[in-house]
Amino acid sequence: MASSSSFFTFSSQTTLHSHLHRNTFLTKTQFPVPTKSSESNFFGLRLSPSTSRSPLSPCSFKSSIFAKQVNKGQSAPDFTLKDQNGKPVSLKKYKGKPVVVYFYPADETPGCTKQACAFRDSYEKFKKAGAEVIGISGDDSASHKAFASKYKLPYTLLSDEGNRVRKDWGVPGDLFGALPGRQTYVLDKNGVVQLIYNNQFQPEKHIDETLKFLKAA
C-alpha cells in the first residue's frame, strides 16, 4: 500500500533480511515476557511443521489488496464479532468516544505479542485520552482468550474468522499478500476515521503514533 501523508497513512518497505526479529523484549517484570518459540520469527507469519501449508496463505488475503478501502474522513463500517469470551461485540456500541481499532496478523507471533503488550503497557494513557482499544485478527475466541490471559491484556480482542471485516475495511496485506496486514485506525466519537497507520515490522510504532494523534486531537 502506497504511503499517503494526507491520509496519515504509512507503510513500511523493507528487505527480506530486515523481516527477521531478534525476539528480545523489554517489559515490566510483573508481566509475562514473550519467549522464543519454534514458530517462524517473521512478525506475523506463523508456520507449523504439522501443517502442509501456512494458515496465512497468499490466496486468503489476495482479495484484501483489491477490496474497497476505508479512508480518512469516512465512517467506519460497522461489524459484530465475538470477543475473547465468545460474546458478540458491535463497533456501534463505542459511539460517543474515540476508538483505536488495530488489525494484526495472529496471536502468539513475536511481533503481534510485542504490539499487544505495548498497547497493554500504554492502556492507561489511552483511557486518559478517553479512547477504547480493540484488537482484531483471524484467530478464534479461544485463541484470543488464551493470548489475553497469558499477557494480561486489559482490552478487547475480536475474532474475525474468515477475515470478513479485514476485507470489508480493505486492510492491505504484506509480502505480496502472504502476510496479513498490520494496520491501525483511530475513529472519532462519531465513528469517522481520523487516522490510518500501517507498519508491519515496527509494531510498537502503532502505539506511539495513535497516542500522539489522540493527544493532539
What is shown here, in short?
Helices cover 25% and strands 15% of the residues. It has 6 helices and 7 strands.
Question: Please, could you describe this protein's structure?
Answer:
25% of the residues lie in helices and 15% in strands. It has a seven-stranded mixed β-sheet with strand order 2-1-5-4-3-6-7. It is built from six helices and seven strands. The chain is of the alpha/beta class and 217 residues long. Strand 6 and strand 7 form a beta hairpin. It has a domain at 77-216: 3-Layer(aba) Sandwich (Glutaredoxin), CATH 3.40.30.
Strand content: 15-25%
Helix content: 25-40%
Low-pLDDT runs of 5+ residues are: 1-42, 47-67
What's the number of helices?
6
* Principal-axes shape call: globular
Q: How are strands sequenced across the largest beta sheet?
A: 2-1-5-4-3-6-7
